[in-house]
Amino acid sequence: MAAVHGGVLGAAYLAGSSPVHRLPPHLKLVAVLGFALVVVATPVHADWAWAAHGGHLALVLLAAAVAGVGPARLARGLAIEVPFVLFAVLLPFVAQGPRVEVAGLALSESGLVAAGGLLAKATLSVLAAVVLAATTEPRALLAGLERLRLPALLVQILMFMMRYTDVVAGELARMRVARESRGFRGRHLGALRVLGPAAGSLFVRSYERGERVHLAMLSRGYAGRLPGGPAPAVPARAWLAALALPLGAAAVLATGLLLG
Amino acid sequence: MHVPDGFLDAPTSAATAAVAAAGVALALRGARRELDERTAPLAGLSAAFVFAVQMVNFPVGAGTSGHLMGGVLAAVLVGPWTAALCLTVVLVVQALLFADGGLTAIGTNVTLLGLVAIGVGWGAFRLLAAVLPTTRGGVLAAAGVGAFLSVPVAALAFTGLFALGGVADVALGTVAAAMGGVHALIGLGEAAITVVVLGAVLAVRPDLVHGARALRRATLLAGRPPSVPAGAR
């Protein structure tokens, strides 16, 4: 579990020095969020929807290529979608409206269209998010969120969570190794009597660690804020490069709206 | 469990984002009351705990296993406001680092899993804890019911949002019944895991359990010995 360098949270990061890696993190966050907004705003029932999805797919694949994120990596990122593929597959069966005959099954026409649209949009956004996670370290993402004026307390909570997730997950892994080396095999309901207390003691250890961390911070002069230098200026070129993705996607959408 | 991009239309996503932002702002104030200036490290470590414990697969019977959502467990352990922040932080990390849950749907996910699930679960817990006897069993039963309710209620809230801003015209009754039914089963697992984990913490460090403060007042849990032997001074 923690075998990957960078731990549980850093597992998504792909070290590199592509132009996408070098972009300031807050610009990448804005770009991916803007891209996702454009994808969500694409009307599902329009005739040209699939052309627009295709254009968006081309854009996000281009971004992945520039970032050096390979197809295997993108495919692994898509695995997260599986539960919602199941939901989308159900839609043609439960949706109302006129029916069409597909392979001997009477499916709802609007349900089919909606399910296709859902899957396309979710896939496009997941691809963009995978490129973001693969080119930005968790630490940099945090700096980006701070730069985007997320409340300071929330940023600090996020920071502690990111720093200590590997520690807490490591304790969990050691507990599992200890359990299993004593012959534990959690296959039936009775295992709850073992796993429950394990999770409970993990909470006690996490909370007590939080108290110790707080005292250590106080002794080093913590007064509710973390020190940080002034944020570096962002050249206009970086803005242009980052916004190429959402602006390109918006151009595809606008073309569809005008011509369709 | 997390809503991806594109399931709800843009206006609904924007509306839930506004609700989530307001809720998180309230939770930031509330968590300061619960944890004072220790908020950042303790809420951060609690969020790391929630994230880690979501990776544990608990066997829940009939050969299936499930993992915890942890909203109600966290609320009873560290207080509802801090728990809402923990869930928010976990959802943000999952969306940004694992593409689990859409970026435009972060507001929806925080509203459903952070605010609705914890709000309903904590409300049920408080109501029951007031009615039931202030014993260990009473607290555990109240937490179990709260955890059970939180899952189908969040699923039904999602169904409601899907009816408002979904992109398919589905028969609402059918979807509500299916979502409610499936998630009632998941809720049973959530309740079982919550009760077992909470019981373990109550046995070791009852003073850490936010939702069991009444218990601490009713029975002196770690009382000093009534008389210290003379030789021990």
Automatic annotation (TrEMBL), chain A:
It is found in: Cell membrane. CDD domains: EcfT (cd16914). The keyword Metal-binding does not apply. It comes from Geodermatophilus pulveris. This is Cobalt/nickel transport system permease protein. GO terms for biological process: cobalt ion transport. It is a multi-pass membrane protein. The chain crosses the membrane at residues 50-70, 77-95, 115-136, 148-165, 238-259.
Automatic annotation (TrEMBL), chain B:
Keywords: Cell membrane, Membrane, Transmembrane, Transmembrane helix, Transport. GO terms for biological process: transition metal ion transport. InterPro entries: CbiM/NikMN. It is found in: Cell membrane. Its main location: membrane. The keyword Transmembrane applies. It is a multi-pass membrane protein. The chain crosses the membrane at residues 12-28, 40-60, 72-98, 110-132, 138-164, 176-204. It comes from the Bacteria. The keyword Protein biosynthesis does not apply. One of its GO terms (cellular component) is plasma membrane. This is Cobalt/nickel transport system permease protein. It comes from Geodermatophilus pulveris. The lineage of its organism: Bacteria, Bacillati, Actinomycetota, Actinomycetes, Geodermatophilales.
